[in-house]
Amino acid sequence: MFVQNVMAPLLGSQHIDAGIRVLVPREFLESVEKNVLCQRPAWRIEAAKVNTNCDHALLLSDHSVFPHSIVKGEPCISVEIKPKCGFLPFSRFIAEGNAIKKSVTRFRMHQILKLHQQEIAQISEYEPLDLFSGSKEKIHKAVKALFTTPQNNFRVFLNGSLIYGGLGGGTDSTSFMVGEAFEDVLKCVIQAEVGMRMESFLHLVSETVSKSGVLDRLLEVQKLDIFDIEGAIHAYYDIVSEPCTVCRDLGEDIASHRYTSLHSIPSDESLKIVRDYLIAATAKDCSLMISFAPRKDGDSASPYSNVYLASTDQSFDYKV
């Protein structure tokens, strides 16, 4: 209901899959958990556990393929990108001690924390602000950085099978051998000489991200968070009619000076602040799937959008 009635109107129903609720037996869920856990790194096992007491699950379409590609046996290559938050918070309720949030993206700060906690071997070169910038040059820079240090933020699928990137965040960087193997796999999709396919593919992804405009809509939804968590938390306590523990911990003088306005607004405004914060948080944590299928010469009847790759003189159908 949330995806269909809230996120779909904001992002466009063509970009959203609300899924279908289906009845599932406990044995099926136990089997899913068993198969998932063995593919997750140790530090993400807890998050991968399945609630086997549920009797329903969401059935989602496989967005790594074009339906017609499966039928016709044509190659289909897809990219999954986790873009993260694409703007710096600007809320006046951000405390002075947390002012770094206004100049360094949440993703970059998390990278340093993950490195410190030994969850990753190196910091990603990816900067979300580049991907959301609207600049073709910066978008391409961001895509190349995601490819270089994919972690669990960049994956590539060929005909529905994972060929690049980690299942659980274990892939830190692209080695020469991995890059060479990936280059070879691309030959069925990208018509370029050896050594040029990977770069052409990354240009294809960058061009499509720019042309589709989907990140512009995503950024608009992310920016519904205008108060930041440091402001929204006060509205939350008013909604649930509980004493604000943040104000209590800060002390009456500081809290009264900074947050009185938030605790004085009508309940419907408090509800809107929390609602918009949660919607924005969902948009900050989504995945973007882009699927490509080479378009044959003279094929103008395709229902999909198309993008032209100048370096190989190829046209591709794509869906986001």
UniProtKB/TrEMBL annotation:
Coiled coil: none annotated. Signal peptide: none annotated. It catalyses: 1D-myo-inositol 1,3,4,5,6-pentakisphosphate + ATP = 1D-myo-inositol hexakisphosphate + ADP + H(+). GO terms for molecular function: ATP binding; inositol-1,3,4,5,6-pentakisphosphate 2-kinase activity. Its EC number is 2.7.1.158. One of its GO terms (cellular component) is nucleus. The keyword DNA damage does not apply. It comes from the Eukaryota. Keywords: ATP-binding, Kinase, Nucleotide-binding, Transferase. The keyword ATP-binding applies. GO terms for biological process: inositol phosphate biosynthetic process. It is an enzyme of class 2 (transferase). The EXKPK motif is conserved in inositol-pentakisphosphate 2-kinases of both family 1 and 2. Phosphorylates Ins(1,3,4,5,6)P5 at position 2 to form Ins(1,2,3,4,5,6)P6 (InsP6 or phytate). This is Inositol-pentakisphosphate 2-kinase.
